[in-house]
Amino acid sequence: MLLMAAAFMLARTGRDALYFQADGIRALPIAYMGMALLALPMAAMLLMLVRTFGAGRARLAATGAMALVLAGVGLVGTPGGGVGMTLFFMVVPVVFGGLFSLAWMLAGESAQHPSLRMARLFSRVGAASILGGLLGAVVARGLAPFVEPRSLLLVSAWSWPPPCSRSPWPSGGFHPST
Predict the structure, then answer these.
(1) Which of 56, 44, 77 is nearest to 152 (CA)?
(2) How far apart are the C-alpha atoms of 14 and 155, rounded to whole Å?
(3) CB of 164 within 8 A of CB of 65?
(4) 97 found inside a domain
Protein backbone atom coordinates (compact mmCIF):
# COMPACT_ATOMS: atom_id res chain seq x y z
CA MET A 1 0.00 0.00 0.00
CA LEU A 2 2.88 2.34 0.82
CA LEU A 3 4.43 1.94 -2.63
CA MET A 4 1.09 2.18 -4.40
CA ALA A 5 0.25 5.44 -2.63
CA ALA A 6 3.71 6.83 -3.39
CA ALA A 7 3.36 5.83 -7.04
CA PHE A 8 -0.06 7.49 -7.18
CA MET A 9 1.32 10.78 -5.87
CA LEU A 10 4.20 10.67 -8.34
CA ALA A 11 1.85 9.85 -11.21
CA ARG A 12 -0.62 12.55 -10.23
CA THR A 13 2.09 15.18 -9.91
CA GLY A 14 3.62 14.24 -13.28
CA ARG A 15 0.20 14.06 -14.91
CA ASP A 16 -0.85 17.48 -13.61
CA ALA A 17 2.42 19.18 -14.55
CA LEU A 18 2.35 17.71 -18.05
CA TYR A 19 -1.33 18.45 -18.57
CA PHE A 20 -1.15 22.06 -17.42
CA GLN A 21 2.03 22.97 -19.33
CA ALA A 22 0.05 23.97 -22.38
CA ASP A 23 -3.72 24.33 -22.82
CA GLY A 24 -4.84 21.48 -20.55
CA ILE A 25 -6.57 23.85 -18.17
CA ARG A 26 -9.20 24.50 -20.83
CA ALA A 27 -10.07 20.81 -21.02
CA LEU A 28 -10.24 20.36 -17.24
CA PRO A 29 -14.07 20.46 -16.96
CA ILE A 30 -14.34 17.74 -19.61
CA ALA A 31 -11.71 15.68 -17.82
CA TYR A 32 -13.58 15.82 -14.50
CA MET A 33 -16.89 14.91 -16.14
CA GLY A 34 -15.09 12.05 -17.87
CA MET A 35 -13.76 10.78 -14.54
CA ALA A 36 -17.31 10.58 -13.22
CA LEU A 37 -18.41 8.69 -16.33
CA LEU A 38 -15.44 6.28 -16.22
CA ALA A 39 -15.82 5.34 -12.55
CA LEU A 40 -18.69 2.87 -12.97
CA PRO A 41 -17.31 1.04 -16.03
CA MET A 42 -13.91 0.79 -14.31
CA ALA A 43 -15.48 -0.68 -11.19
CA ALA A 44 -17.44 -3.18 -13.31
CA MET A 45 -14.29 -4.19 -15.17
CA LEU A 46 -12.35 -4.70 -11.94
CA LEU A 47 -15.19 -6.78 -10.48
CA MET A 48 -15.20 -8.91 -13.61
CA LEU A 49 -11.44 -9.43 -13.23
CA VAL A 50 -11.85 -10.36 -9.56
CA ARG A 51 -14.64 -12.84 -10.29
CA THR A 52 -12.71 -14.39 -13.16
CA PHE A 53 -9.19 -14.55 -11.75
CA GLY A 54 -9.45 -13.80 -8.02
CA ALA A 55 -8.56 -10.62 -6.16
CA GLY A 56 -4.81 -11.25 -6.03
CA ARG A 57 -4.41 -11.95 -9.74
CA ALA A 58 -6.77 -9.11 -10.66
CA ARG A 59 -4.65 -6.73 -8.59
CA LEU A 60 -1.46 -7.92 -10.28
CA ALA A 61 -2.97 -7.61 -13.77
CA ALA A 62 -4.39 -4.14 -13.10
CA THR A 63 -1.11 -3.02 -11.49
CA GLY A 64 0.89 -4.21 -14.47
CA ALA A 65 -1.49 -2.59 -16.95
CA MET A 66 -1.37 0.74 -15.12
CA ALA A 67 2.43 0.61 -14.94
CA LEU A 68 2.54 0.10 -18.72
CA VAL A 69 0.20 3.05 -19.27
CA LEU A 70 2.32 5.27 -17.00
CA ALA A 71 5.50 4.21 -18.78
CA GLY A 72 3.95 4.76 -22.19
CA VAL A 73 2.79 8.28 -21.37
CA GLY A 74 6.11 8.90 -19.64
CA LEU A 75 7.86 8.09 -22.91
CA VAL A 76 5.58 9.74 -25.48
CA GLY A 77 3.18 12.04 -23.59
CA THR A 78 2.86 15.60 -24.82
CA PRO A 79 2.05 18.72 -22.81
CA GLY A 80 -1.47 20.01 -22.90
CA GLY A 81 -5.00 18.73 -23.02
CA GLY A 82 -5.41 16.90 -26.30
CA VAL A 83 -7.68 13.87 -26.51
CA GLY A 84 -4.99 11.40 -25.41
CA MET A 85 -3.74 13.49 -22.51
CA THR A 86 -7.27 14.28 -21.34
CA LEU A 87 -8.05 10.56 -21.35
CA PHE A 88 -4.85 9.91 -19.39
CA PHE A 89 -5.79 12.69 -16.94
CA MET A 90 -9.08 10.87 -16.34
CA VAL A 91 -7.65 7.36 -16.13
CA VAL A 92 -4.99 7.95 -13.45
CA PRO A 93 -7.30 8.61 -10.45
CA VAL A 94 -10.00 6.21 -11.65
CA VAL A 95 -7.64 3.26 -12.07
CA PHE A 96 -5.68 3.99 -8.91
CA GLY A 97 -8.99 4.21 -7.03
CA GLY A 98 -9.77 0.71 -8.23
CA LEU A 99 -6.30 -0.50 -7.29
CA PHE A 100 -6.67 0.91 -3.78
CA SER A 101 -10.04 -0.84 -3.52
CA LEU A 102 -8.46 -4.14 -4.56
CA ALA A 103 -5.74 -3.72 -1.95
CA TRP A 104 -8.31 -3.07 0.78
CA MET A 105 -10.38 -6.03 -0.46
CA LEU A 106 -7.37 -8.29 -0.03
CA ALA A 107 -6.97 -7.00 3.51
CA GLY A 108 -10.66 -7.61 4.14
CA GLU A 109 -10.38 -11.25 3.10
CA SER A 110 -8.82 -11.94 6.47
CA ALA A 111 -12.10 -11.11 8.19
CA GLN A 112 -12.13 -14.48 9.92
CA HIS A 113 -9.40 -13.22 12.24
CA PRO A 114 -10.22 -11.76 15.67
CA SER A 115 -11.41 -8.17 15.62
CA LEU A 116 -8.43 -6.80 17.56
CA ARG A 117 -6.07 -8.29 14.99
CA MET A 118 -8.19 -6.83 12.20
CA ALA A 119 -8.12 -3.40 13.82
CA ARG A 120 -4.33 -3.51 13.98
CA LEU A 121 -4.09 -4.75 10.41
CA PHE A 122 -6.36 -2.05 9.02
CA SER A 123 -4.65 0.67 11.02
CA ARG A 124 -1.31 -0.44 9.55
CA VAL A 125 -2.69 -0.52 6.01
CA GLY A 126 -4.17 2.96 6.49
CA ALA A 127 -0.94 4.29 7.94
CA ALA A 128 1.02 2.80 5.03
CA SER A 129 -1.31 4.55 2.61
CA ILE A 130 -0.82 7.92 4.31
CA LEU A 131 2.95 7.47 4.56
CA GLY A 132 3.08 6.41 0.91
CA GLY A 133 1.29 9.58 -0.13
CA LEU A 134 3.79 11.63 1.86
CA LEU A 135 6.71 9.69 0.42
CA GLY A 136 5.47 10.21 -3.14
CA ALA A 137 4.97 13.92 -2.54
CA VAL A 138 8.47 14.32 -1.08
CA VAL A 139 10.07 12.42 -3.97
CA ALA A 140 8.08 14.42 -6.54
CA ARG A 141 9.06 17.69 -4.85
CA GLY A 142 12.70 16.65 -4.74
CA LEU A 143 12.80 15.56 -8.38
CA ALA A 144 10.66 18.35 -9.88
CA PRO A 145 13.45 20.94 -10.28
CA PHE A 146 15.67 18.44 -12.07
CA VAL A 147 13.39 16.37 -14.32
CA GLU A 148 10.57 16.83 -16.78
CA PRO A 149 7.02 15.88 -15.72
CA ARG A 150 7.14 12.80 -17.97
CA SER A 151 10.05 11.53 -15.89
CA LEU A 152 7.83 11.51 -12.80
CA LEU A 153 5.48 9.19 -14.68
CA LEU A 154 8.38 6.89 -15.50
CA VAL A 155 9.53 6.85 -11.87
CA SER A 156 5.96 6.06 -10.82
CA ALA A 157 5.70 3.23 -13.36
CA TRP A 158 9.00 1.75 -12.25
CA SER A 159 8.64 2.14 -8.49
CA TRP A 160 5.74 -0.09 -7.52
CA PRO A 161 5.00 -3.05 -9.83
CA PRO A 162 8.08 -5.13 -8.90
CA PRO A 163 7.20 -5.27 -5.19
CA CYS A 164 3.51 -5.77 -5.97
CA SER A 165 4.26 -8.66 -8.32
CA ARG A 166 5.91 -10.60 -5.50
CA SER A 167 2.86 -10.76 -3.30
CA PRO A 168 3.45 -12.83 -0.19
CA TRP A 169 -0.04 -14.24 -0.70
CA PRO A 170 0.19 -15.95 -4.12
CA SER A 171 -3.18 -17.64 -3.72
CA GLY A 172 -4.85 -14.24 -3.85
CA GLY A 173 -5.82 -14.40 -0.20
CA PHE A 174 -4.57 -12.11 2.52
CA HIS A 175 -2.92 -13.99 5.36
CA PRO A 176 -1.42 -11.64 7.93
CA SER A 177 1.29 -13.00 10.18
CA THR A 178 0.48 -10.74 13.13
Answers:
(1) 77
(2) 10
(3) no
(4) yes
DSSP the chain: -HHHHHHHHHHHHHHHHHHHTTTGGGGHHHHHHHHHHHHHHHHHHHHHHHHHH-HHHHHHHHHHHHHHHHHHHHHH--SS--HHHHHHHHHHHHHHHHHHHHHHHHHHTTTTS-HHHHHHHHHHHHHHHHHHHHHHHHHHHHHTTTS-HHHHHHHHHHHSHHHHHT-S-TTS------
Please give the model's pTM, rounded to 2 decimal places.
0.82
Q: Which domain holds residue 71?
A: 2-161
Q: How many domains does the chain have?
A: 1
Q: Give tens-digit pLDDT for 112-136.
A: 666 777 777 788 888 988 999 999 9
d(CA 149, CA 16): 8
In a domain, residue 175? The reply is: no
* pLDDT value at residue 24: 82
